[in-house]
Amino acid sequence: xxxxxxxxxxxxxxxxxxxxxxxxxxxxxxxxxxxxxxxxxxxxxxxxxxxxxxxxxxxxxxxxxxxxxxxxxxxxxxxxxxxxxxxxxxxxxxxxxxxxxxxxxxxxxxxxxxxxxxxxxxxxxxxxxxxxxxxxxxxxxxxxxxxxxxxxxxxxxxxxxxxxxxxxxxxxxxxxxxxxxxxxxxxxxxxxxxxxxxxxxxxxxxxxxxxxxxxxxxxxxxxxxxxx
Length: 228
Description:
The protein is α+β, with helices and mostly antiparallel strands. The chain is 46% helix and 23% strand. It folds into 2 domains: 5-150, Jelly Rolls (Sandwich), CATH 2.60.120.10; 154-227, Arc Repressor Mutant, subunit A, CATH 1.10.10. The protein is built from 9 helices and 11 strands. It has a 4-stranded antiparallel sheet. A 4-stranded antiparallel sheet has the order 2-7-4-5, with no helix packed on it. The chain is elongated and about 65 Å long. The chain starts with a helix and ends with a helix.
């Protein structure tokens, strides 16, 4: 990317939140690494940066515009993740880890960003200031994810988990999920006692039946309606 003053201004503004507490020399070094190793990209409204399960070939830091993130779960349900705006990154954990993308990233408005292909990302990561920047960004994303998860009640998380098992049960007449309450508790981040109480409430409503080591879903449609 060129060292045009306007480019530098946009990058500095986008990274300001994560470089706020960095020393001036560290801020300059991180911005320099972005300008040197990234490339400008423009994405039209409605176009995708990438799709869920695609191999991660690039990560993006948004300079202008906004994007939506949709994650598709087993059973076809789509979960809308928090929107992204200037200063937010798309696909960073996946590119850093070599894992497939975890969601669809779609431009909600026309977006200007800086794209880091694998080689450019590796070059930038060799700069200590850029590595420190990434650590701050990833820490912020983890906190944001925890906050998003906490927005769902324990019952919503338990019902979402059961619904995610519907596809693997396709064609099975008894619709039984072979899983213990302890495993559900670990999967959705609540106590076993909470799982027991919530399942008992769903059983009283005629939605599920709890068995030893199994949960039988009696009405998938009603369970989905309960989640909505």
